[in-house]
Amino acid sequence: xxxxxxxxxxxxxxxxxxxxxxxxxxxxxxxxxxxxxxxxxxxxxxxxxxxxxxxxxxxxxxxxxxxxxxxxxxxxxxxxxxxxxxxxxxxxxxxxxxxxxxxxxxxxxxxxxxxxxxxxxxxxxxxxxxxxxxxxxxxxxxx
Amino acid sequence: xxxxxxxxxxxxxxxxxxxxxxxxxxxxxxxxxxxxxxxxxxxxxxxxxxxxxxxxxxxxxxxxxxxxxxxxxxxxxxxxxxxxxxxxxxxxxxxxxxxxxxxxxxxxxxxxxxxxxxxxxxxxxxxxxxxxxxxxxxxxxxxxxxxxxxxxxxxxxxxxxxxxxxxxxxxxxxxxxxxxxxxxxxxxxxxxxxxxxxxxxxxxxxxxxxxxxxxxxxxxxxxxxxxxxxxxxxxxxxxxxxxxxxxxxxxxxxxxxxxxxxxxxxxxxxxxxxxxxxxxxxxxxxxxxxxxxxxxxxxxxxxxxxxxxxxxxxxxxxxxxxxxxxxxxxxxxxxxxxxxxxxxxxxxxxxxxxxxxxxxxxxxxxxxxxxxxxxxxxxxxxxxxxxxxxxxxxxxxxxxxxxxxxxxxxxxxx
Lengths: 143, 414
Known about the structure:
The structure holds 2 protein chains of 2 kinds.
Chain A: H1 7-14, E1 27-33, E2 38-46, E3 53-61, H2 64-77, H3 82-87, H4 90-97, H5 104-125, H6 136-139
Antiparallel strand pairs in A: 1-2, 2-3
Helix pairs in contact in A: 1-2, 2-4, 2-5, 4-5
Chain B: H1 11-14, E1 24-25, E2 28-29, E3 31-32, H2 43-55, H3 66-85, E4 94-97, H4 100-115, E5 120-125, H5 134-143, E6 146-150, H6 163-166, E7 171-178, H7 190-199, E8 203-207, H8 219-222, E9 226-230, E10 241-245, H9 247-252, E11 263-266, E12 271-273, H10 287-303, H11 305-323, E13 329-332, E14 342-347, H12 352-361, E15 364-365, E16 367-369, H13 374-380, E17 385-389, H14 396-412
């Protein structure tokens, strides 16, 4: 049980990486988890190639899982291309977050940041959301 | 123990009636502190429903055979007891619904669509559950009526003085409030609001979902026109509730759901409606659930609503005292004298979901979220709160476990 709030999660929660806002971001979106009111906004700036994530920041408030997972996400995706991140699977992030047997409710908390990022990137690129994430923008009320 | 021997209600003995409470969660005895969301069920209610299914089940008001008669008798008997439970002048004014929400929707649609229009005002409160907020907001928008909210004072009580200010904005036609707030526990001055509403020729609609389980209800003394409540919060089954309404209003209203059972005569050209309460009970009702609802009303009446209220008040005072010692705690809601057994709080810097998660490890079940009160959360400036709520089976040591659990929360997030 204690795994849920193990050291690394609490560290990311208390000292979130990439916390902040990018003015004039190339891709941005915000979403909420209506169940518990977690909020995440994500801002992405691309490299000169217009594909590689040069900088990523997020702001928001919510439970430790949602905020720590988003913080970890920013570290995972920096330097990867929009196309790569667009294909990034739920499992890959959940593995990184590293909590076994998370309840479905908490899994949603963990996936909020990734969902918002995906919508931001696909919108910026004008590509549709992959099958695994269809309907996600509505679920997280992404704007 | 601060709550002790002089209680008239013997919570420890009553607990033997609730099989679900005798279990362990995560290796700890279950401390169920979320009765405001739904109450647990005593054996008496479960037995009444099983026995009904095993001996008397049939559809009501239809067949002429013995089972149909027995079922009708049990169903209508429950209606009569539930009507008495809220001191309704007549059981014909007591309509079975799915829950309090459906009762409130019934009034908003069946009364509101006909009686509201441009220039009219619907007044709700910032303290409303979405069930008595969203239907009115929607029907007001659809009919062109205005929509206003009675604001809250700092202590989480209605600022009644604001009412007179609304009169300049339009004809107030509806005042809608809860009797007890599910989020803060505030007991609202419904008698005063009813008097004000009637002075202005408005109807008074009361969401009684959180009140009926905990306070003795007298709809005539409250002076309201409609009173909606749910069985599941007062130890009854889910899937059934009741709406009491003043007869002349119900009779003048259009129907809400249409179909079987609610008609007098159906012809190609036209259909006429049945008498009360059938006019508002289209289709097959939740029959066994209504029987269970009746058994639940019997059960909590036998325990005594005053004894329940006193018990919860003692628990509330004890909880406020214990929780005040938790570092970083922020408590919401009015003084215990004007509050039901609900404690809403936050721990600084720790999200309610994380608080509730760690408490679950300790076997302590509380609610974390917006409690279907987003306007109130907005008013409090928070996304969510933690909420512990009590009922007749709650023990003081469960509050000790809550307080100790919160210290563990602090430790985890240290």
